[in-house]
Fold:
Amino acid sequence: MRHLYTFGFCVLALLGTSLRGQAQSNDEPSYRKEFTYGINFNTRGGLIGGAAVRSTRVLDEKWSRFWGIEGVEVKHPKEQRVLNGSTGGSFVYGKSNYLFVIRPSFGMQRVIFRKAPESGVQINALLGAGPSVGLLMPYYIYYDYTLREPGTGRTVQEDIRSEQYDPEKHSSGELILDRAPIFSGAAETKVRLGGHLRGALSFEYGRYRDAVAGIETGFLFEVYPKNLTILRAPNINDNTLNTNFFPSVYLTLYIGHRS
Structure:
């Protein structure tokens, strides 16, 4: 009987060692690199904020480091689109510049909850930071300078110009025929350098080892040394109407592959 107990104890000890080894092996990720790309939505953008790509390298069962780049359009919260009833065109009242931002990011990611190999949802927490390259591109409109005869309104000389929108100069909304093509002022783009910090949670699902899809949601704080002029208004200082600090909440839908 003593030998039987001894044998049973040895079997349980070996089984326990095997299960611990299996649990440890399950915790080990089966990939070392991950590359994802996605569509960004944020509280400072329009219907679609922009696009992002990211490369991640696994360090151990909990930690990874990543680098990525994101391109978005940042809008002023007071932007208001106006329709010209005569032409059917539209423009954003007071908008003087587009603001496009390129954000290279570097950071760390930690696994909060690891999913099973071929099912479930994995939850990660991440923190990243990097420079922000702001591109202020003039917002152009078509303005009607056509000369007409007093009283009759008959056209003497048609004169429609594409110019950067200045609310003081282009004071008559009826004469703003439409917004000009988005890249009309590309040659006059000004570069402004700043920085950003982000924190987020990602919820990823991958049915297969080499594929991944998921959602990342979090906050982003972005700051520049000086105010960036997006909107202008008559008799209001540009610095009063605009800011150099751009906080936002964002959501990114992404897919990618692992190796």
User: Anything to note?
Assistant: The two ends are 53 Å apart (CA to CA). The helical segments are 2-27, 238-241.
